[in-house]
Amino acid sequence: MGVSEYLDFRLLKYIVAVAEEGTFTAAAARLHLSQSALSTQIRLLEENLGIKIFDRERGTTLTAEGKVLLRYGRDGLRTRDHIVDTIQAIHAGKMKPLRLGFTPFVVNPLIKVVTDLYKDLIPDSEIVPESDATEDVVAWLRDGECDAALVTLPINSEALEFTVLERHRLLVCMRADDPLAAEEEVPAAALDKKISIFTYQKHHPLAYDMLTQMFGELGVTPRPCKPTMNIDHLQWMVKETGCYSLIRPGRPLAQGLTTRPIAEVDWTIDTAIACRKDHGNPALSLLLEELKKLYNIRPLSSERKPPVSVGVQGVTRARKGDKSKVQMPLFSIPAKG
């Protein structure tokens, strides 16, 4: 029998209860056990694993090993519950197709990652995709007409929760022969009355308003333009008129174009998966858990609160480091407090 066989869900539940209640007595009452039985079970587990979970000289203070068990105990118990609820729904014939919305600014590779992952988690499942302008997709979510949606932030809705999956720094698209292309970064003042906001006016007015406000704080007035969602048209306008436009990294560029970041700022485009806080869909909960693992997302430290979006659970990529420049997710709103 391997050492890992000694650790089961029942014992994980005991560890979580003691850690959350603060005493063995309170945890035993919560678990409907005697205090002596609970203490004995945890002590046997410690002996079998060859570790200490609680520092009994300091009450129920978790050891380093105990902190690991607590984190993964909570995760494991939550996942177990979602799996059980999901298979029971399948057995009862209550599993419905996942209605997944997405807005025009969400790139196709991300949509494929999400849909492929869901089908891998729930074999034989069905997905019904729908797309429209941001405000319409958010309305679908609020009204229960779709289960989840891939959206570009910001979104103002207290009824929804968001998990940021991708965060890309926005760049300035310009002609390769533009004098500014010789610089590593573009001074904000050089964009005044020369940079156009082509894509957000119609399909994401909240993002458009925020972007114009942020440019205003830099002393930059955007150049008027007719909106377009066609990336080829946007690049054609930049190439033919010599104006500038924002663009996300990784976009294929037409010949004769290049990109540069804006100096002293780090604006990003944030893409999140959104759902109702009370969605009650265990299969969707499984999907959200797996997406957080896939994108290496962890809770934000309470000691440092970078900008997050309204209604967004505090999340960030674990591998994302601090930067000295002014950080402002373009489609996010600074957290209060």
What summary fits the major beta sheet? 6 strands, mixed
**CATH first level of the largest domain:** Alpha Beta
Order of helices and strands: HHHEEHEHEHEEEEHHHEEEHEEE
Low-confidence segments: 299-337
Rounded Rg: 25 Å
SSE order and pairing:
Blueprint: H1 9-21, H2 24-31, H3 35-49, E1 54-55, E2 61-62, H4 64-91, E3 98-102, H5 108-121, E4 127-131, H6 134-143, E5 148-152, E6 160-169, E7 171-175, E8 195-196, H7 200-203, H8 205-217, H9 231-241, E9 244-247, E10 257-260, E11 265-276, H10 282-294, E12 297-299, E13 315-317, E14 326-329
Parallel strand pairs: 3-4, 3-5, 8-9, 11-14
Antiparallel strand pairs: 1-2, 5-11, 6-11, 7-9, 7-10, 12-13
Helix pairs in contact: 1-2, 1-4, 2-3, 4-10, 5-10
